[in-house]
Design goal:
The complex is a heterodimer of chains A (475) and B (550).
Chain A (H helix, E strand, L loop, with lengths): L2 H31 L14 H24 L5 H27 L8 H6 L1 H22 L4 H5 L4 H22 L8 H12 L7 H27 L8 H6 L3 H26 L16 H18 L1 H4 L4 H9 L4 H23 L6 H27 L8 H6 L1 H26 L7 H36 L7
Helix pairs in contact in A: 1-2, 1-5, 3-5, 3-9, 3-19, 5-9, 7-8, 7-11, 8-9, 8-11, 9-11, 9-16, 9-19, 12-15, 12-18, 14-15, 15-18, 16-18, 16-19
Chain B lengths: L21 H11 L10 H22 L1 H4 L7 H30 L10 E6 L3 H13 L6 E7 L3 E3 L4 H5 L9 E3 H4 L4 E11 L4 E6 L4 E5 L2 E4 L3 E3 L7 H4 E2 L4 H20 L3 H7 L1 E5 L3 H17 L12 E6 L10 H14 L1 E5 L3 E4 L3 E4 L4 E3 L2 E4 L3 E3 L10 E2 L2 E3 L12 E3 L4 E2 L1 E2 L5 E2 L4 H19 L13 E5 L5 E5 L2 E4 H15 L3 H16 L8 H4 L7 H5 L5
Parallel strand pairs in B: 1-2, 1-8, 2-5, 8-21, 10-17, 11-12, 11-17, 12-13, 20-22
Antiparallel strand pairs in B: 3-4, 5-6, 6-7, 9-18, 14-15, 15-16, 19-20, 23-24, 25-26, 26-27
Helix pairs in contact in B: 2-4, 5-13, 9-10, 9-11
Classes of the chains: A mainly alpha (475), B alpha/beta (550).
Chain lengths: 475, 550
């Protein structure tokens, strides 16, 4: 068998059992709640055993499909899990919204009402995708031998636990009752350290991944495991999720904060341990920081200008009035642009040297924009107006326009920063073959992360829209 | 002689189309000692997923523009997002392929439009480094450019602070910036230039281990700098200390402290005075700064030497002209003169040093100064290596046209102390040999060199210096910036601020700032290092003075 054939066979051999494992995990969760996956409706249940085997066969096919998809991606284990979530959303769109109605003789239901009706199924598919991906990672192993080499040690897991704990404590201190349970912090931190071994990608990539881990933790922990352990049923219905909407931003921020702290601890680790320095990238403190901040400021200014019309219709004028005492248009514009520049500077510092091409930069920018939607309109802006963070489905529904605005801002920021940085951030001339290979490895590593993080962004956005749209009846 | 291939970030040698297969990747892995690179991600799936990012952006833009204009309801956002994702996912692979193909085209993969152009820069001072750094900035526009920097030392010495090292206020490693860090995209050779063959377009260099290597070039940049010029005066080369290198600065510091050690043990007052007399030849910037720096060093550590009385050390500045600091205006020069005199430094103007031995310094007016220290700051001359080149020269310096191209050559450029650069604003008079001029000339050479490669006309170099700053010892300086004159403490603060800012690299700036802060609270270190054990001036001074700078 040729190498490609062997690779396919290996992916199928790992994917099929991974699918069955994911199916069993889903069955276990749903079974506790006395429900069946929607795919059951497609199968004639002649007997319990036959039905069970048929389910396993369906999930094995789904797993094999995922294996073929993930086989071609050189992801870190955690990113494979993100791909799994997106795979789940894909099958939710294909299954309950398209194939199932067709099989039942109806037209595909790709509208919001049908999607919201099938929301429990969406959560189930997210859980299924994550389970399949996790099982696949265990059975198949990483595609990149470098990822194998970077598998976490006890020190890394300890740092993960410390980072998660610190992030949970910080969030609890800042958000009081809205923060997730303290025990989730170390669990999330350890998962991050285990699934995303330290790479040279820097704090920005860690932040985006952390946000993704927060989303995974919300689906697996917040909606499924924690309620089950608490003795209640699954919190998968749309009404329950809307009622407990505060947990979503809390998990997202916990994941992002934990990842950021972990990235910081990873950089500090050489100071605290005797671990060999060879494991760390070269010291870069001070090199190009100022230039990155300046480029970020310019890119942020452009992004802020792009959405200034929208932001001046939001709470920004009120924030400007509170901060400057002026209610004029100019004050609002100045505050909006200042915020844009400040976020741009932070982007420059966190994401410098990460945008290897335009699609990569677009991915980082959109993800950062989404994070700032949670941090801005839902959290900091209400706080600046003297109120509480608006972590409710109704407030989020009222901020869908702001969500679109932040995505546009993030896209402008990411692309403009990439254009400003590209002439100076890319090693155009490698001075030796070894340096060329290292440059290519770093570039490929970054480019390999982009599809998984993009897929996760799409999954998060679809889920968010289904949850919040119509929560108050208008946007 | 074999030379490493120019390699692109996608792993392909110049002239070789990048092939990204597992087999090639495995070979690349062996190059670095890392695990072999696996094949890249599946482009189809990646393209679909990354294409959806455009869909997300399109959805966001539609949500903000078209949908409100159409008075669409909130429920339409979801199907619009699905449609955007499907559409963009469909075109994603094509879009991604086009983007990456464009990116690959910008990389030097074989058929670079300009082909491979090799630039060799000899000399790692301000001028040479400035050329390399500017070329690195221009690399995105010139992907076929291959830049090599040859320097005897592997660091850029920030010479304006060299006297700070000699005076013991700044650590010796804090005024040097590694060239590999300063020019990260330039090939670097730590080597001495053995010879240059303009006909064959080859630079022959001798590496650290003594091995000879020939570097071919398409364009050669001469930034060889200058060496001390002792004018073959008897005994001067063997007995004078110079201040051109880091080793010179360390040696001068150790020499001065060593003289104090000797004087402290000397019972004969006449001999003690000989140990404690410090003569500086040359009243330009370097000499004035040197005499002030040595004065400060001696007086700041004198309390460690109980047998040396405060009035015993003697400092003499010998200058051939009627006033010191001829580059400065008369008022500032008079201020500097007065300042040095007030401190107790003797100024001998209108005379020169004509000879020296280990025990005395002879002056042109017949006076013999009993002194065991002579610091030579009375002039430099361009690198002797230039003498072997068939180039038009004046006073040893290569003649260049106003675009900095060597006269009579199409592929050689020269700048800095080794070149006579005409100042077109002053009727072609030579530009002063300062660091700021060398830096600006370096940028101009890089831009003109690229212009010449692309068939454009090089531009005339015009630069009006920002001014001059000269420290006059403890918390005092003279400065002339854009016609404005400063003196005393404000000038001294300006000097420190300007040179701290100009020092390359945040890390070095912080280290120097820390050194200066420590100096405020603690006495200077008087520990002698290896240099002084050899007993005074470097016995190889004469040989070094005749060596090329690169």
């Amino acid at each position: 068998m040729n190498p490609a054939g062997r690779s396919v066979a290996r992916a199928l051999a790992a994917g099929a059992p991974a699918g069955m494992a994911g199916g069993l995990a889903l069955q276990a969760a749903v079974g506790r709640a006395g429900e069946l996956p929607t795919v059951a409706a497609l199968l004639p249940a002649t007997s319990w055993k036959a039905g069970f085997l048929a389910h396993l066969a369906v999930f094995a096919v789904l797993g094999a499909g995922f294996g073929l998809l993930a086989r071609g991606q050189r992801c870190l284990p955690g990113e494979t899990v993100f791909l799994g979530l997106a795979y789940g959303v894909l099958w939710w769109c294909l299954g309950p919204l398209t194939l199932l109605p067709l099989a039942l003789g109806r037209t595909p239901a790709l509208d919001l009402a049908a999607a919201q009706q099938q929301f429990p199924s969406l959560v189930g598919h997210l859980l299924l995708g994550a389970s399949i991906a996790l099982a696949f990672v265990i059975l198949h192993g990483p595609a990149d031998p470098a990822a194998q080499r970077g598998s976490p040690d006890a020190g890394a897991l300890l740092r993960g636990a410390a980072a998660g704990t610190l992030a949970a404590l910080l969030l609890r201190w800042a958000m009081d009752g809205r923060a997730p349970a303290l025990a989730l912090g170390p669990a999330l931190g350890v998962a991050q350290a285990a699934l995303s071994p330290r790479s040279s990608q820097g704090a920005g990539a860690a932040l985006v991944r952390g946000q993704g881990y927060g989303f995974v933790a919300w689906v697996v922990g917040g909606l499924t495991v924690v309620p089950l352990l608490g003795g209640g049923g699954l919190l998968w219905s749309l009404e329950e999720v809307r009622g407990g909407f505060a947990s979503l931003p809390a998990y997202l921020l916990l994941g992002a904060l934990s990842a950021l702290v972990l990235a910081g601890l990873d950089r500090l680790a050489p100071l605290l341990s005797s671990e060999h320095l060879r494991a760390y990238p070269g010291a870069t403190a001070g090199s190009g920081v100022l230039a990155a901040a300046l480029r970020g400021a310019v890119a942020g200014l452009l992004g802020g200008a792009a959405i200034s019309h929208l932001m001046l219709q939001s709470t920004i004028p009120a924030v400007a009035a509170r901060l400057t005492g002026s209610t004029g248009l100019l004050a609002g514009l100045a505050v909006n642009l200042s915020i844009g520049v400040a976020i741009g500077v932070s982007y420059g510092l966190l994401f410098r040297r990460l945008g290897q091409d335009a699609s990569c930069a677009l991915g980082w920018g959109l993800s950062y924009g989404l994070l700032w939607w949670v941090l801005g309109p839902l959290t900091l802006l209400p706080a600046l107006l003297g109120g509480e963070p608006q972590w409710t489905a109704a407030a989020a529904a009222g901020s869908v326009g702001a969500l679109a605005g932040h995505l546009v801002y993030g896209a402008c920021l990411g692309l403009a920063f990439h254009l400003l940085e590209a002439p100076f951030g890319v090693p155009w001339l490698a001075r030796s073959p070894a340096e060329a290979v290292q440059a290519r490895r770093r570039r490929d590593e970054l480019l390999a992360s982009t599809p998984a993080l993009s897929a996760l962004l799409v999954a998060m956005l679809l889920t968010l829209l289904v949850v919040v749209t119509g929560a108050t009846g208008s946007v | 002689m074999a030379r490493p291939e120019l390699v692109t970030p996608n792993g392909a040698s110049m002239g070789t189309r990048a092939v990204r297969t597992g087999r090639h990747a495995g070979r690349e892995g062996r190059i670095t000692g890392d695990p072999p690179l696996p094949p890249p991600s599946d482009p189809l799936a990646s393209g679909v997923i990354e294409g959806m990012l455009v869909g997300v952006l399109a959805w966001a833009v539609l949500s903000l523009t078209l949908l409100p204009a159409l008075d669409a309801t909130a429920s339409s956002l979801f199907p619009v997002l699905l449609v955007s994702l499907c559409a963009s996912g469909t075109v994603g692979p094509g879009l991604q392929a086009a983007l990456r193909q464009r990116h690959q085209r910008r990389l030097p993969a074989g058929a670079a439009p300009l082909g491979r152009r090799r630039v060799v820069i000899v000399g790692g001072g301000f001028g040479g480094v400035s050329v390399a750094r500017r070329l690195e900035q221009l690399l995105p526009r010139m992907p076929g450019l291959d830049v090599t920097l040859v320097s005897r030392s592997n660091y850029l010495l920030f010479t304006p602070m060299l006297m700070e090292v000699a005076a013991g206020t700044v650590g010796s490693g804090h005024v040097s910036v590694p060239l590999r860090a300063a020019c990260p995209r330039t090939r670097f050779r730590q080597a001495e230039v053995d010879s240059i063959d303009p006909a064959a377009r080859l630079v022959h260099v001798r590496g650290v281990g003594g091995a000879l290597e020939s570097l071919p070039y398409d364009h050669l940049v001469l930034a060889l700098g200058a060496v001390p010029n002792v004018c073959d005066l008897p005994g001067v080369a063997d007995n004078a200390l110079t201040l051109k290198t880091l080793e010179d600065a360390r040696r001068l510091r150790d020499h001065v402290i060593g003289r104090l050690e000797q004087a402290d043990l000397e019972a004969d007052p006449r001999e003690r005075r000989r140990w404690l007399t410090f003569v500086v030849a040359g009243g330009g910037f370097a000499g004035t700064e040197a005499v002030a720096g040595v004065f400060d060093l001696v007086h700041s550590v004198l309390s460690y030497f109980p047998n040396v009385r405060r009035g015993e050390p003697r400092f003499v500045l010998v200058h051939s002209r009627e006033r010191i600091l001829p580059e400065l205006g008369g008022r500032l020069a008079r201020y500097a003169h007065r300042r040095l005199q007030d401190r107790g430094i003797q100024l001998r103007l209108g005379i020169t040093v004509v000879g020296a031995s280990q025990r005395e310094v002879r002056l042109s007016d017949g006076e013999v100064l009993p002194a065991r220290t002579l610091i030579w700051a009375a002039g430099t001359r361009p690198s002797p290596l230039l003498g072997a080149l068939p180039l038009a020269r004046q006073a040893g310096a290569v003649l260049v046209d106003p675009t900095l191209r060597v006269r009579g050559s199409s592929d050689m450029w020269a700048l800095g102390d080794c070149a006579r650069v005409p100042d077109v604003e002053r009727g072609g008079a030579p530009q002063p040999p300062t660091a700021q001029h060398a830096e600006r000339q370096g940028k101009a050479v890089a831009e003109n060199l690229v212009a010449a490669m692309t068939g454009k006309a090089p531009e005339v170099f015009r630069y009006r210096g920002l001014g001059f700053l000269v420290p006059l010892g403890h918390q005092s300086a003279a400065a002339e910036v854009r016609g404005m004159r400063f003196s005393g403490l404000p000038a001294w603060l300006l000097w420190r601020a300007v040179y701290l800012w100009k020092l390359p690299g945040l890390e070095k700036r912080l280290r120097v700032l820390l050194d200066w802060t420590i100096e405020l609270f603690f006495p200077r270190d008087i520990a002698l290092t290896a240099g002084e054990r050899r007993g005074g001036p470097d016995p190889s001074a004469r040989r070094r003075a005749r060596q090329p700078a690169a």
